[in-house]
Design brief:
Pfam families: FAD_binding_4. The two termini are 22 Å apart. This protein has three domains: 93 residues, Uridine Diphospho-n-acetylenolpyruvylglucosamine Reductase, domain 2 (2-Layer Sandwich), CATH 3.30.43.10; 136 residues, Uridine Diphospho-n-acetylenolpyruvylglucosamine Reductase, domain 3; 230 residues, Vanillyl-alcohol Oxidase, Chain A, domain 3 (3-Layer(aba) Sandwich). Helix 9 crosses helix 12 and helix 12 packs antiparallel against helix 13. The chain has 15 helices and 20 strands. 30% of the residues lie in helices and 22% in strands. It is globular and about 65 Å long. The strands form four sheets. Strands 12, 13, 14, 15, 16, 17, 18, 19 and 20 form a nine-stranded antiparallel beta sheet that branches. A five-stranded antiparallel beta sheet has the order 5-6-10-8-9. It has a four-stranded mixed beta sheet with strand order 1-2-4-3, with helices on both faces. The chain is of the alpha+beta class. The longest helix has 21 residues.
Length: 503
């Protein structure tokens, strides 16, 4: 009986008489205005337009009934109590770096913008930092440069701490430290009843594990402690290659890039300090470019583990140098600036040359099949996932990503960029074709991996199911325990929800 009741509650059906959504939102906005006179904004204000427009992708800009900007965990608790009492739908924004509509905003409901939760603190023993979740990773890195302290965090400077901290988290320390979530020591989270608790390996350990990949299914995270270490400068930058000549053919270039990528991942355990992403781009101006984003966090210039990449011809730009973590994050963000329409998707494959090479050809064919390709930028990133990165999880309470500890893998991230809203459907269909055919190629080659990185996933994907049935069952159990009436399923509908996972 209890499971049937929870299913009904999670479905979005209210068991009590209530006002219409519009009148409920009006009532919520009025009460929020009373509670937050300096942090409340309506559609008639310039501040409202600035706040709702502060999204990385224009596809994510929606029109809430009002915006509230809390300045503390206590404020977030107050807002959640108001919203749950009146059954008002809402969304939460940390950095706003997710392109999926509804992930960080909402039409008609209430938007909670965490931008004022931006404090940082270094522990007395320098072993961890505390970050509020409204700060961006770039600002967090800058905050500790003078202390010569670093920690695993986002690769782009304008990504918010909040979203990455519950999604897994790719970082420049992936091989040497693991996922960002495996370096989080504590989450402060506001639950559905407005209570704020700390989840750690020893307190609310089930919630602690669930948050490390379980996304926004349990509450609103307001600050985190992340393991830190002494760090000064690093080596890194970008090497740009022209895929269309003059020294060798495109086919030969892709052959060499595929071999180099597979070999690098297979040998990554021999050099845990070196990382890379291989990004191939078709640009609307006709350019066909591969961007090798290269890093060494031990500050070794051009390490030998990158020799295969550095020997590939057709190089026309090399920005690698000794620099800071914050500078690398800034440079990465320049390649994907805000102000465009973006769509993303992700597929994971085993570290297999044949599959990788065929997916590169698939990417070419999918882009060239676009009727309006001269108005679209098409970028596909290949991100190494060495199996050693999973070894860091168990000692810190585990995570909920459901990854295989026994195989090296590659996360493929499709990112398309355009301006004209009339192209939305065409680009979306191309994305879906690419994903479906890439999965088919991988399955045919016995190289398919079910994991879908949730922070790269597109709106039509089901990344939670990619974690595996056992993990999804665990996550649902934790959500039921800490949010028995399904507030973060029903009232906060954006993002990837356990209630809608089809597995």
């Amino acid at each position: 009986m209890r499971s049937d009741l929870l299913a009904l509650l999670w479905s979005g059906v209210s068991l009590t008489a209530e006002a219409s959504p519009a009148s409920a939102n009006d009532a919520c906005c009025k009460e929020l205005q009373k509670e937050f006179p300096s942090g409340y904004f309506e559609p008639s204000s310039d501040q409202y337009n600035a706040l709702t427009g502060s999204r990385w992708s224009k596809t994510a800009i929606l029109h809430p009934g009002c915006v509230v900007v809390p300045a503390s965990t206590k404020d977030v608790s107050c807002a959640v109590r108001i919203l749950t009492k009146r059954e008002c739908k809402f969304a939460v924004k940390s950095g706003g770096h997710n392109a999926n509509p509804g992930a960080n905003s909402i039409d008609g409901g209430i938007s909670i913008d965490l931008k004022r939760l931006n404090a940082t603190k270094l522990a007395a023993d320098r072993s961890y930092v505390t970050l509020e979740t409204g700060i961006t990773w770039g600002n967090a890195y800058h905050a500790f440069e003078a202390e010569k302290i670093a920690f695993p965090g986002g690769i782009c400077e304008d990504v918010g701490v909040g979203g990455l901290a519950v999604g897994g988290g790719q970082s420049l320390f992936q091989a040497s430290k693991g996922w960002v979530v495996d370096n989080i020591l504590r989450y402060e989270i506001v639950l559905a009843d407005g209570t704020a608790i700390n989840a750690t390996q020893s307190s609310h350990a089930d919630l602690f594990k669930a948050l490390k990949g379980g996304n926004t299914n349990f509450g609103i995270v307001t600050n985190v402690d992340i393991a830190a270490f002494d760090f000064d400068v690093m080596w890194g930058g970008e090497v740009l290659l022209n895929l269309t000549g003059p020294e060798t053919s495109r086919s030969d270039m892709l052959d060499r890039l595929s071999h180099a990528t597979v070999d690098f991942i297979a040998n990554n355990e021999k050099d845990l300090d070196t990382g890379l992403q291989v990004v191939t781009s078709y640009l609307r101006n006709g350019a066909q470019v591969t961007d090798l984003a290269l890093t060494n966090v031990a500050n070794v210039s051009k390490p030998s583990s990158l020799d295969q990449f550095l020997s590939i011809p057709n190089k026309f730009l090399d920005t690698t140098r000794h620099t800071s973590l914050a500078t690398i994050a800034h440079q990465t963000s320049l390649a994907v600036p805000k102000g465009f329409r973006y769509v993303t998707a992700s597929v994971t494959i085993k570290n297999d040359y044949t599959t990788l090479r065929q997916i590169w050809d698939l990417s070419d064919a999918t882009y060239l099949g676009l009727a309006d390709k001269n108005k679209v930028d098409w970028m596909v990133s290949f991100v190494p996932q060495p199996k050693i990165q999973e070894s860091y999880s168990a000692s810190r309470g585990g995570n909920s990503l459901g990854l295989d500890h026994d195989s090296d893998e590659i996360v493929i991230w499709l990112l398309s960029r355009w301006d004209d809203v009339s192209l939305d459907s065409e680009v979306d269909q191309a994305r879906n074709r690419f994903v479906n055919k890439a999965k088919a190629i991988a399955k045919r080659n016995n190289a398919y991996a079910s994991f879908v990185y949730i922070n790269y996933a597109g709106p039509s994907q089901d990344p939670l199911c990619g974690y595996g049935a056992d993990t999804v069952a665990f996550l649902r159990g934790v959500a039921t325990k800490y949010d028995p009436t399904g507030v973060f399923q029903r009232l906060m509908p954006g993002g990837f929800k356990l209630s809608s996972a089809q597995c």
